[in-house]
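User: Now give one protein:

AI:
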Amino acid sequence: MTFKKTFLLLGLGLSLNLPGFAGPQEARTNKYSFTIDLTKVKDDRIQVTLLAPDVKQQEIVYNMPKIVPGTYSVSDFGKYVTDFKALDKKGKPLEVEQLDTNRWKIKNASKLEKITYWTNDTFDAQKREDVLFEPGGTNIEENENFLLNTFGFVGYFDGMKQVPFELNITKPSGFYGSTPLIAVASTATSDMYQVPSYMELADSPLMYNKPDTTVLNVGDTKVLVSVYSPTGKVTSKPVAANVKDILEAQRQYLGGTLPVDKYAFIIYVSEKGGKSGAFGALEHPNSSVYFLPEMPEEMFSSTLRDMAAHEFFHIVTPLGIHSEEIGNFDYINPKMSKHLWLYEGVTEYFASHVQAYEGLYDLENYLDKLREYIITSKTTFNDTLPFTLMSANVLDKPYADEYGNVYQKGALIGLMLDIQLRDLSGGKYGLRNLMADLARTYGKEKSFKDEELFDKIAELTYPELRQFFTRYVEGSEPLPLTEIFRKVGIIYEPEATITANSYGGFTPGYDQESGHIIVAETADMDDFGQAMGFQEGDQLLAMNGTPMTPVNVRELIGEKLQEMKPGEPITITVGRKDKKGKLKEVQLQGKVTPTERKGLHLLKPDPNATPQQLELRAAWLNKQV
């Protein structure tokens, strides 16, 4: 990928001789001045130095975050800090008492000049309990890569989160800092950033390595796509091309303009996967951090595309709409908002709905996506647990185990609200309109009170919605899927018997090393599977000569196979290891065989839908009747 000089000027700031510029040793009395030196790694740690703002009291507490927004779990970044020291102007140590994992009390604090400590990274955590979800963690790879989620390196004093912060990064030659921040000064070996508060700094990740970046113009918004891939198999240019159309669709979906001037996709690609065993992303108001394993290009593109669609929509909520719990987040003892249905659920709904609304999904594909939400929410999670109760207590057992439902039932809550709003307004007003009205009512700088949101939505829209929230979001009743889908001429069947051409009935899996779908288990294999002779460990290579990949397997099995007539010959090519462990191609031959099976949570267009239902569907999905 070509590093674009135009973005360097836009992204890294102005000139090196700015009026009023002060180095980290000067004019520090009204701000924090942190320095992180990436050129001096010691035992896989880097040193953090703080020239402290003026402290008036005799004792003050320095905090590293226990929990950070968007993770909904305990991180305890203080456990990665070692050799914590507080010094006066003469370099003499002040007495420090570590109160707990994340807090240090400094005595004689009015004499405080400097704090120093070393930080370990989370990617290489040695203890299982210290492993964090990588997109919310930190990485230190000397002369290779530094993933700086700032909350993993930088803390704050009690009562002083709103004091300005200056962040100075000393970097190896040739390294570039990918970040949503704009540097106020930059040289070949250093960058300086200034932000007005800890909240903004904590929401501003940086990734330093030799640059592989591409810049997109999405309307008036500059979008940086930065990739670190140690093997070079994944590069920024095709990744940027892959996400561009979804970003353009989101811009149109939001009325033609985006509420941010700049945005950064920061993507770390792992050759072997991470210690958490998971992959994914963490959102910030002007950026998102991704941790993804290497996988086949089509699969990587598809995975990233869906994640990017979700994370990018967080520019709507909680950036523009959030409660007091988020607006003034407590990093040590946070109170959780009960509105995860809004922050994550509506965001996930928008991420899939935009693709149907802007023509990137057809109706069949979109209904398949909605069916996935339904199946997962009803089979994996507690469908009768009040959503607000789970949300407010998500840090505690057993509610923490239900968190994943925000992306499933939470999206369905958004769906139900959207269709109801369309129905009540004759198709003219939907969930996007409501989000715009809430953003105008509150906005980035004004938080709503948790207990008032449902009443405010009913006030802005229709009184009927208050009862919906009472019954289905605050209450334990399952969502009224049949009733709501009927409004747009969609038939929902919780259970039905269907006849389909069998693929074999084995349990499929994915082999990361080869990138192929495999036969994981054969215990429940049906007659067709037994006749074909599938064996556990078989890699699925082709069907009737067409290569089979994780990206097209649904099309081959769900469409091509279903279009074949019963009795037609079929050949499936598998990769199978012989007794010596050598992989050989084997042709499995048989005849297409239909089988009856139980279908759960089926969605299909009603062939007898009324004109009114079709008109409402058209308004909901932006389609002509």
Q: What stands out?
A: The chain has 16 helices and 28 strands.
